[in-house]
Design brief:
Layout: E1 2-11, H1 15-22, E2 27-32, E3 36-43, H2 49-58, E4 60-67, E5 70-78, H3 86-92, E6 95-97, E7 101-104, E8 107-114, H4 117-128, E9 132-142, H5 154-157, H6 163-174, H7 186-191, H8 197-223, H9 233-243
Antiparallel strand pairs: 1-8, 1-9, 2-3, 2-7, 3-5, 4-5, 6-8, 7-8
Length: about 240
């Protein structure tokens, strides 16, 4: 099965793009999470006071350093409204957005993957209708050439997973609950928290169920072109039908 990858850059009103236009040496990489944006900002040389002030206005600074390689800052900001956003347009045309978005010299750079060349063409026509766009590449690629991680953006995997469910899952993972053999039990995990065992288990199971549900579409994509039956599922069904 062939896939189609398109890389392009656009110009439209966006605070990060505008900062990159005012500071041509700056590179801004943007990741969408479930309820916020994580922004990585890099630039060679010593930053000006004006640039540092603009970075501070973006959101909460998680990391900041200046050394011989230049400036490196990671910030977190509240997610702007995505209504009629470019990312929503990708989804409406059945195109998978490949983060991060890169802002440089007044342009936003995007890469998407689609399973039909017509979807890519329709997306580009849609974007050309209301913003400047320049196509950088559009190629047909084999599915096997794409790392599976590219098909599963982090924000999609953790969609609808609550903060408590994530905390329960992380505690179980870091305590060896998913190792073989297991290094801990549900009772021991719950004892490490301030909630009852039944409450902790409910948070953990809901987190597991949501993660598997969210990953389901990507699992189907990864296995769609395979004809292998390593668990002999079809054989087992055939045997049952023969017995009937």
């Amino acid at each position: 099965m062939s896939l189609y990858e398109a890389s392009f850059r656009v110009r439209h009103e966006c605070p990060y793009r505008e900062i990159s236009e005012r500071h041509p040496d700056l590179t801004i990489r943007e990741w969408y999470l479930s309820d916020c944006q994580v922004i990585e900002i890099t630039a060679p040389g010593d930053p000006s006071d004006e640039l540092l002030a603009e970075i501070d206005a973006i959101g909460t600074v998680l990391h900041e350093s200046v050394d011989e390689t230049g400036l490196h800052v990671v910030t977190q900001s509240c997610l702007c409204s995505l209504e009629d956003s470019i990312v929503e347009r990708f989804e409406s045309h059945n195109c998978l957005y490949q983060p991060p978005t890169v802002h440089r010299q007044g342009w936003e750079h995007y890469t998407v993957i689609a399973f039909d060349e017509g979807d890519v063409r329709a997306l580009l026509r849609d974007l050309e209708a209301d913003r400047d766009i320049e196509v950088l590449s559009k190629t047909s690629i084999a599915e096997q050439e794409i790392p599976h991680s590219m098909l599963a953006p982090v924000d999609r995997l953790f969609e609808d997973v609550t903060e408590r469910q994530l905390a329960a899952l992380r505690l179980a993972l870091e305590s060896g609950y998913y190792e073989q053999p297991r290094k801990t039990s549900l009772r021991d995990l719950a004892d490490m928290t301030a909630v009852a065992r039944s409450t902790y288990e409910e948070h953990l199971r809901k987190a597991e169920n949501k993660l598997l549900t969210n990953a389901g579409q990507f699992l189907r994509l990864v296995t769609a072109s395979s004809t292998a039956d390593p668990l002999a599922v079809n054989t087992g069904r055939s045997d049952e039908q023969a017995a009937d």
